[in-house]
Amino acid sequence: MTIDETAERVIGLPPEKVAAYAMDWRHDSEWTQGIRAAGLTREADTGGFGVGAEVTRTAYFLGRRIDYVLRVAGYDPPGLLDMVSVAGPMPMHVTYTFDPHPEGTLARIRVRGDAGALYRLAAPVMARKVRSSITKDLRDLERRLIR
Question: Which of 116, 99, 28, 104 has the alpha carbon at shortest distance from 69?
Fold first, then answer.
């Protein structure tokens, strides 16, 4: 079963400010649900963070520890950060977009994945949990940025 969930929120700051914080992997555990640690484990071919870089995240989901690696597939700040899993319990594709909006920034997170045989029975629960988590992520992102 595939999962395809999207959440969006208008944040009252310019896209450059929202994206600068959200696209910095060093902040992942501050606003992303369940992530306890994140580290840049492979730099982009051009050095630093960008296309080809890999971020290893340690998260807790449905009570289980999950370690996974996301590779940057698309990086066009401040508008786009697109990442695909290259290691972890299930194939996953996470897209962050930050578009100008009359009230600031329309921030959007889309998570797509294949629950596979291992999680097939739990896929409907996982989809609801993913939707809830990314909705909370955007809420927490806004709280971090607007104090």
Answer: 28
